[in-house]
Specification:
With about 150 residues, the protein is an all-alpha fold. The protein contains 5 helices and no strands.
Amino acid sequence: MEAKRGSRHILLNGLAMVLAGLTWGIFIVNTPYPRLALVAHIQFIQSGMLFTLLAVLLIKLDHAVGARSLQVIIAAVWLNWLLLFSDVANAWWGTSQMLPIAGGQAGATGAAAWQEALMKVTHIGPSIVLLIAWALLFLGFVRHRKE
């Protein structure tokens, strides 16, 4: 995938995340665990802004981010959607293992084992891929600077 097309894909997903977060904000008070719904709202906005910034950097600045690195970054974007929607579901489930501070503040006492496991999978995997993607982005800018 060429950098400009991939960057546009990332940008559109980032903007969509912000829009989804703003929309989700309307429903926070209607959930069993509004504090966890607020976590989802903040995550949508924060992730959307992060990916929007990432896309703008790729579009506007010279870099040496390769096609494979761009594929990893796009994978991080898609995996992040899973994380965000699991946070939305958590506003009804009230899991407490993956987000113990937020869960504790929300009064969540835990959920079914499969819900707790799903929260772990949808948070750990995307977080690792996002960390790798951001490192590849950083290296792409550092390599370009050296050239």
